Amino acid sequence: DIQMTQSPSTLSASVGERVTITCRASQSISAWLAWYQHKPGKAPKLLIYKASSLESGVPSRFSGSGSGTDFTLTISSLQPDDFATYYCQQYYSYSQTFGQGTRVEVK
Amino acid sequence: QVQLQESGPGLVRPSETLTLTCTVSGYSVSRAYYWGWVRQPPGKGLEWIGNIYHTGSTYLSPSLKSRVTISLDTSKNQFSLKLSSVTAADTAVYYCARPIVATTPGWYFDLWGRGTLVTVSS
């Protein structure tokens, strides 16, 4: 299976800060990568697909970039509603796999 | 607005079969799309279990394939997961979700339920 490694595992930030989360694949996945936001007790929410395509209804402060093995999710100006855990997922292979998650917490 | 809601027992005995149901509102499961299951053991990452197409064709994780059955109940607009011979390692939050296919063999998921915790314990 393709391994997905996210960093950092926890990120402390303040409202208004620019936040960047990294996801690395164990082999090239082209741009077949999605990002999700998950809050406790809530349904995970799709933010980005195909590495940089913003899902409908997702605020434009979220952006994704990268291809091959290295990807980033950027929140341009962190808002109170953005404190959550973020996961990347590759869907290049049949056995799609997820990263371990990055928790964004209040600094 | 399409919504997914998981239901089922929160406790399953070891060696028994775990059965969960996902009720879909706002869209007919027989009309189109794939429908799927993902789980997250405590303290671990998300793991894909399998998907079912609206025609009834199933696509299962190779690591779980021997124990997993996914089916549609179009009369109730639901799809179900059965996982047999469970052990403590199957303790997890189970999510139903809607997989979206790209041109690759894999899927990403554009809609999710809130998840339901299933504990395997005697």
Tell me about this structure:
The complex is a heterodimer of chains A (107) and B (122). Chain A is mainly β. In chain A, 0% of the residues lie in helices and 50% in strands. Chain A is built from no helices and 11 strands. Chain A has strands spanning 4-7, 10-13, 19-25, 33-38, 45-49, 53-54, 62-67, 70-75, 85-90, 97-98, 102-106. Chain A is globular, with a radius of gyration of 13 Å. Chain B is 0% helix and 53% strand. Chain B contains no helices and 11 strands. In chain B, strands 2, 4, 5, 6, 9, 10 and 11 form a 7-stranded mixed beta sheet that branches. In chain B, strands 1-3-8-7 form a 4-stranded antiparallel beta sheet, with no helix packed on it. In chain B, strand 9 (92-101) and strand 10 form a beta hairpin. Chain B is globular and about 40 Å long. In chain B, 36% of the residues are buried.
Provide the descriptors you would attach to this structure in a database record.
heterodimer, A: 107 residues, mainly beta, seven-stranded mixed β-sheet, B: four-stranded antiparallel β-sheet, 11 strands, globular
